[in-house]
Amino acid sequence: MTRSSSSQPDWAQGLGPSGYGIFVGLVRAYFEARGIGIDFDVDSGVIRTDLAEPATQSAFGLLNLAQVCRQADRDAWRDVVRAHFDTVFAVSGGESVLRVDVHHFETCRDMLRARLYPLDITRQSDELVCRPGPPGTLEVLVLDLPTSVRTVSRHEANAWRIPDDALFEIARGNLIQAGALPVTAVEIERGVQLKVIMGDPYYAASHALFLDRYLACDLPHGALVAIPKRDVVLLHEIRTVAAVEAVTAMLRITIGMHRDGPGSLSQAVYWAHDAVFDELPYRIEGETLRFTPPDTFLAVLESLTRGAQWS
């Protein structure tokens, strides 16, 4: 489908009509210069290359790249686009990182990682090895390469003859073994504190898969969790009635971070309890944010409110 440069699809919002046209032109020019044919689905913001093979990931979403450009001076966009795709097509021994030798599992074992992606990653490939993450996300099996991250295809995983659950256990274990990330305490409102986990531009949000390593043990009511983009986790340990203010504050922060990116992941704030992530629903009416907690979470808030009154 052809779209005029003055009409912007959702993934390109914020670039501006002229910026959108420039951005699309720069992306096309990059692949033309490399002599790589592409199928550009402008509506979904996905490029598929003529390098497609069953054992490679050869589709690229443009949302993150568009978000990076939106935050940069327009004069720098050409360099941003080139650097982004040069990383993907980094050459080692004459081979693109898309064609890493994955025939022998032991050569890949230490590179396996578990990484959270938004659900729309499935637009780029139906060959993913994945399982449900927190609502609205997928836990995906990837290879952590020196200059990039690439997904493992179903074709590749099947050749290893190892059950998916075992692969994900190895992948999570490798991510944990890479080390805990720095945690910063931030007071977002008086008496309302967040823990902010950052320090890895690709995997920080994926540390939400093992929150027990970042949360205190004595949390009978669990915690509030947000993963607005791939490089951050926001946490609030539910101990007092301050959780009421924390929910709304976290929602506003999360919505803004997800909108701006790059690496947008989830607009949700979750209630993490008993090894479960419950999405806390809300809606936006004009400029008003309306939080509509489920009965189970409302009961927790009411018990905390009663406790505050009795103390």
Please characterize this protein's 3D structure.
By secondary structure, this protein is an alpha+beta fold. The protein has 3 domains: 1-93, no CATH class; 100-178, no CATH class; 183-306, no CATH class. Helix content is 32%, strand content 24%. It is built from 8 helices and 17 strands. It has helices at 17-34, 63-70, 77-88, 105-108, 154-160, 164-177, 242-260, 295-310; strands at 38-41, 46-49, 59-61, 91-92, 95-96, 112-118, 130-132, 137-144, 149-151, 183-189, 192-197, 223-226, 233-237, 269-273, 276-279, 282-285, 288-291. The strands form 5 sheets. It has a 6-stranded antiparallel sheet, covered by helices on one side. Strands 6, 7, 8 and 9 form a 4-stranded antiparallel sheet that branches. The chain has a 3-stranded antiparallel sheet with strand order 1-2-3. Helix 1 (17-34) packs across helix 3. The longest helix is centred in the last third of the chain and has 19 residues, at 242-260. The radius of gyration is 21 Å and the shape is globular. The relative contact order is 0.09. Mean pLDDT is 85; it is low at 1-6, 52-57 and 91-95.
How would the blueprint of this fold be written?
Layout: H1 17-34, E1 38-41, E2 46-49, E3 59-61, H2 63-70, H3 77-88, E4 91-92, E5 95-96, H4 105-108, E6 112-118, E7 130-132, E8 137-144, E9 149-151, H5 154-160, H6 164-177, E10 183-189, E11 192-197, E12 223-226, E13 233-237, H7 242-260, E14 269-273, E15 276-279, E16 282-285, E17 288-291, H8 295-310
Antiparallel strand pairs: 1-2, 2-3, 4-5, 6-8, 7-8, 8-9, 10-11, 11-13, 12-13, 12-14, 14-15, 16-17
